[in-house]
Amino acid sequence: MSAPDDDLSKLLGLGIKPLKQDRVAPYRPTIDPIPRQRLLDDERVMAELLMENDESASFESGDELKFLRGGFSSRLLKRLRRGDFAIQDELDLHGMVTNEAKRASHAFINQCAREQVSAVRIVHGKGRNSAGRKPVLKNRLIGWLSKNQHVIAVVSTPANDGGTGAVYVLIRQA
Description:
Blueprint lengths: L3 H10 L22 H16 L2 H4 L8 E3 L6 H8 L6 E4 L5 H17 L4 E5 L13 H11 L3 E6 L9 E6 L3
Parallel strand pairs: 2-3
Antiparallel strand pairs: 1-4, 3-5, 4-5
Helix pairs in contact: 2-5, 5-6
């Protein structure tokens, strides 16, 4: 086998000249992938949720809120209320109107599921500054959360962590 220099010298002897290559390949920065379909799906789900009648999503629930998705043990609610799960994130809905709170709560839960966050606290308030001094978001929140596929359980927090003005939410990862 001949060396590459031998091949080049043979070609030069025949009057063949190598091409001059002085062009440099253009620099193209890498582009982060955009999960377009997931974003479109999230938008569509949010639009459907906002179109639903909130009265149908409202739960009558006395002072304390509770929700447990079917197929899970009721002991899970006790453990969540007792604080057996480390709260990893929080959302405060104070000052939001119903549609803002609905969007924010679903976006928050979905983001937490994608980021492998399993337990969160959502503060909805006790309604002391709303018309009639009744909580507006409280009963609607439990309805919204019960419709979110990632929510396993919801329970009102103990008095030292917001009492009936906040809930703990246990989330299934996406």
